[in-house]
Write a structure and sequence with these properties.
341 residues; Peroxisomal Thiolase, Chain A, domain 1; 14 strands; 5-stranded mixed beta sheet; globular
Length: 341
Amino acid sequence: MTTAETPTVSLLDVATYLPPERVPAEWYAQFAGADELRDNLMFRAPQFRHHAAFEETNVDMMVSATEGLRARHGDDVLADVDVLLTHSQLPDLPILGAGGALARRLGVDPRFVIDVHNGGCAAFVLMLDLARELLRSGAGSTALIACAQNAAGKIFRQEHVRTLAQSSVPGDGAAVGLVGLSDRSPILDIECRHYGEFAGDMTLATDPPRLWWQAGSGEGYVSFNEAKIMKVLARGNRLVPEVALAVCDRIGMKSRDLDLLVTNQPNRVFLRNWNEALEIPRERHRDTFHECGNLFAAGIPVNLESAIEDGTVRAGDVVMMAGFAHAGDFAGAAAVRWGGR
């Protein structure tokens, strides 16, 4: 919580980008194979999702997302960025994050450039927490947090992977958040929890088997089976309400009184279970799953901006952002009193 001794940090704005290619569920249906997980609730396909172009990079997508900030705040909105945090679901180069290239493309010269990888689907919350702590500590006055998900149009569109049930769920997108020393849209509280004991449960597979960096003919995909799915469902159902309720307790609110809940969106099952666990009516739990699928780290900011744009969230509303990552090795929640644009 903010005290008299610590400066107030606000989430001043968010801006998002969805690739122009909009892919219907029917496109995947034509390739459907004999996957034993075809009928699993985890992989019920959304109506649509967006695919990044084959040559479209994380940095390309993050730059596109910033156009919304420039349009609303002017070309100089990023001139004073002191902290740049980035997260890429599928790094363009395994040994190099997106931060340095994004700084160059945006023409900014931050004091801190940090690539955040372990936040997964809840990376927006983790980066918001890091930005808040850095700005509070004197690192500067403005931070830009950026995330991109482009695995849908690359990993899950591959010839053999697209026959799997899991392939039709992911979608691509990118988002940025402008964070600053301000009391306009104050971050009320954040809870981040790491569960290292679950980190090894997220694995990749190829057929024939190989390490991801080894040359070979097999296409990589996420390794799932019924037992692993049950573990992930149980953890996700528990972890997201836990972190959201921890924040609610510290800011003195009941979860049912939140004006808006914004989560990541792995599938419809999690979305339903989370709004029920937090006693929030469906109309106050924003998602874009039917149009965008599982957006991984971009899901929370994309959903938040959609609620801002259609007027669902208004100045003075308390917004809870919450999510979990991978097979449950990280979960985070952040509450913001939205100050409007």
